[in-house]
Amino acid sequence: MSALRIFVPGDAGALAVGADDVAAAIAKAAATAGVSVDIVRNGSRGLYWLEPLVEVELPTGRVAFGPVSVEDVPSLIAAGLFEGRGERLFLGRTDEIPFLKAQTRFTFARCGIIDPASLADYRAHGGGVGLMRAAALPPAEIVAMVAASGLRGRGGAGFPTGIKWKTVLEAAGARKFVVANADEGDSGTFADRMLMEGDPFSVIEGMAIAGLAVGATRGYLYIRSEYPHAIARMKAAIATAGAAGWLGPDCAGTGRAFDIEVRVGAGAYVCGEETALLESIEGERGEVRAKPPLPAHKGLFGAPTAVNNLVTLASVPFVLSEGPEAYAAVGFGRSRGTMPIQLAGNIRYSGLFEAAFGVTLGELVKTVGGGTLTGRPIRAVQVGGPLGAYFPPALFDTPFDYESFAARDGLIGHGGVVVFDDTVEMAGMARFAMEFCAHESCGKCTPCRIGSTRGVELLDAMIAGREVVKNAALLEDLCDIMKFGSLCALGGFTPYPVMSALRHYPGDFGLAPAATAEKEIATWA
Amino acid sequence: MQDQAGRVAAIVERFRGVEGAALPILHAVQEALGYVPAESVPMIAAALNRSRAEIHGIVTFYHDFRDKPAGRHLVRVCRAEACKSMGSDQVAQGFEQALGIRLGETSPDGAVTLEPVYCLGLCATAPNAMVDGKLSGRLDGTKAAHLAAGLQP
Ligand SMILES: Cc1cc2nc3c(=O)[nH]c(=O)nc-3n(C[C@H](O)[C@H](O)[C@H](O)COP(=O)(O)O)c2cc1C
Ligand code: SF4
Ligand code: FES
Fold it and tell me: What is the domain partition of chain A in residue ranges?
């Protein structure tokens, strides 16, 4: 009989809550009991409130236990873990867990299921089909398929990927590049990290398809330094893919070259901005470039370059293998396909929820997310990272899509949703937004570099109760100047969290409460 | 210093021919020496055919690079929004009180550096910290103090 397969995630989020110790305890107990086990360090399924989530493979499918601590291991084994039975912490069939069952997993279809170290496992779960299909197509047809899917960039701006690739394909250049942006600096986001750790070959496949589509011979994968596990996993996977002929001088048997090099960031948030990122790869200070020229015309080392978010690229294999219609079939308005939404912060069911665009914010945080972890009423939800607006419960009917959030002075960004309960002090959060901007500003434009520091001072004065009405007016003016006078979205969008906090929670700033947010809380609590 | 110079020279040599090698070199130097010594800047500048001022400008732009060694232990506490929503203020205080230093400081005996980090990508198990490269989630002030107490001087 072959060994019993037991899955204990090696994902950083699972490691942070003790997955290594759990894996070791299970291995030891199995040895003592004389049970032959094969412990697979998979990625995370994205059900983080249940991490470490231990799964046991039965002939009928996988069953789950969680959250498992090292102290739980003996009792779980006594209750039948090796036979896939249990009571306490037993969750039944993993696929039937409602949080997972309610999702539409296109991009994260394999994450948490396969062994991320195994290319064979990746292929056994449908991986590689997209690349093989792309290898048989002329570049313009690959681009046309991506355009037809309606895929828009998942890094924040939502720019149509097909149009970007067409521009790079048609640009003249002795060489061209693909750059995968895995700088993922937004608080509340971890989709890039999960994919790199849990399904690294999908990233490689997406980048290789992009390379064939735009005629690039080299790809750079820029990963933030805060992600050491993802860096190690991607480097190993790139070596494996190279040995298998997916990369190298004859990419996927096309006779065309494509290689990938990992570059590691150095703790600068602004390097997630695409032109700052290119500067960083070139070995410069991560200062934002003025556009034009667009990176698609004149990007890395002056060559035409397709810069895409990592999730964007990892969504492409599905488009090639299942067809653009299958991707575009779900979605909302001009936002086609699925979005990996990341539910984070003070939320009961925290994790990754991949769903078609259009689900409302209220459904996400209440129905899917189960409200706050502390059990207190939700007071504010920040969507889209540190440059995203704070939404009060009064706006929970906003559908999750690019246009709907923009219409309400917000953004979906990279899909991060951070929940705060009623103990949050919103003036302090507004101050943090300005402080973060000051800390991370690349220094190129005055409204961002100086304005953010002035913003911190104004908010300090307001928090201390000094001339709040006058200072609120000054803050609003300052935000206007930052919004319209900044070269990039760091300075340009920091006003979103600041102004949304001021508008929806004026009482927190010592102003007369407006007839907005506060009274709605009761109806949602 | 002679040894340091030798190691920097070897690193620079390793990246010869790599396009845009500044960050990979600086990371490698910091990994080998624990920081980027001012003395290494002219060597890196020469190898990359850049001015010292330019390399200095690059080193100082990026928050990761240090101009002096960190403490023997490195504690990084996440201070970004998702961790704040779950009480990272108390976690930071827990570390500060147990270690007797403030965020951004190194203890006088050089044992510990305590610094902020802006998101570790673990926002669904907040609040988080990284202690000597090991991740810890679902922290509170007490657990932070416990982690701090576990550090050997
Ligand atoms: C301050 C700032 C930070 C950004 N950070 C990221 C990031 O971490 N990851 C990312 O993919 N895009 C980030 N972006 C957006 C990129 O500039 C760019 O739009 C994106 O990488 C393009 O890829 P996409 O079309 O696939 O979304 C950032 C933008 C700004 C202004
Ligand atoms: S807005 Fe700020 S980060 Fe963006 S280019 Fe200007 S100074 Fe740099
Ligand atoms: S905000 Fe702390 S890990 Fe993301």
Answer: 4-97, 119-328, 331-421, 426-524
The verdict on a CB contact (< 8 Å) between B65 and A264 is: no
CA angle A356, A308, A152 (to 5 degrees): 30
- Residue B93: which CATH number? 3.40.30.10
Tally of domains within chain B: 2
Of A16, A286, A416, the CB nearest to B122: A16
pLDDT of residue B153: 79
Domain membership of residue B56 (yes or no) is yes
Mean pLDDT, 10 residues at a time, over chain A (525 residues)? 92 98 98 97 98 97 98 97 97 98 98 98 98 98 98 96 98 97 98 98 98 98 98 98 97 97 98 98 98 97 98 98 98 95 98 97 98 98 98 97 96 98 98 98 96 98 97 97 97 98 97 61 37
pLDDT tens digit at each of 153 positions of chain B: 568 999 999 999 999 999 999 999 999 999 999 999 999 999 999 999 999 999 999 999 999 999 999 999 999 999 999 999 999 999 999 999 999 999 999 999 999 999 999 999 999 999 999 999 999 999 999 999 999 999 987
Q: Does B58 reach chain A within 8 Å, measured CB to CB? A: yes
Distance A445 CA to ligand 2 centre (A): 5
Interchain proximity B137–A282, CB inside 8 Å? no
d(CA A224, CA A213): 26
Distance from residue A443's CA to the centre of ligand 2 (Å): 6
Residue B120 lies in a domain: yes
Instruction: Give yes or no for a contact between A475 and A498, defined as CB atoms under 8 angstroms apart.
Output: yes
Q: How many CB atoms lie within 10 A of CB B9?
A: 13
Alpha helix ranges (H) inside A171-199: 191-198
What is the second-level CATH architecture of the domain A331-421?
A: Roll (3.10)
Closest listed residue to residue A135, CA positions, set A286, A255, A271, A21: A255
Cα–Cα distance for residue pair A375/A421, rounded to 1 Å: 8
With an 8 Å Cβ cutoff, is A382 touching chain B? Answer: yes
**Residues contacting residue A102 through CB under 8 Å, at least 6 positions apart:** A353, A355, A368
**Residue B94 maps to a domain:** yes
Q: Which CATH number fits domain A426-524: 1.20.1440.230, 3.40.50.300, 1.10.630.10, 1.10.10.10?
A: 1.20.1440.230
Task: Quote the CATH superfamily of domain A4-97.
Answer: Glutaredoxin (3.40.30.10)
Interface check for B81 against chain A (CB to CB < 8 A): the answer is yes
pLDDT at B1 (0 to 100): 55
CA separation for the pair A306, A215 (Å, rounded): 10
Cβ of A12 within 8 Å of Cβ of B121? The answer is: yes
> d(Cα B3, Cα A328) in Å, to the nearest integer?
60
Q: Does residue A190 sit at the B interface (CB-CB below 8 Å)?
A: yes
Confidence (pTM): 0.97
Distances (CA, A) of A480 to A250, A447, A494: 52, 10, 11
Same-domain status, B30 and B81: no
Structural contact between residues B95 and B89, judged by C-beta atoms closer than 8 angstroms: no
Q: Is the CB of A444 under 6 A from ligand 2?
A: yes
Which token pair is A298? 């004149």
Spatial distance between the Cα atoms of A442 and A289, rounded to a whole number of angstroms: 11
Whole-angstrom distance, CA of residue B95 vs CA of residue B129:
10
Domain that holds residue B100: 73-149
pLDDT at A320: 98
Q: Is the CATH number of domain A119-328 3.40.630.30?
A: no
Nearest CB among B21, B121, B133 relative to A184 is that of: B121
Bridge partners (DSSP) of residue A61 are A58
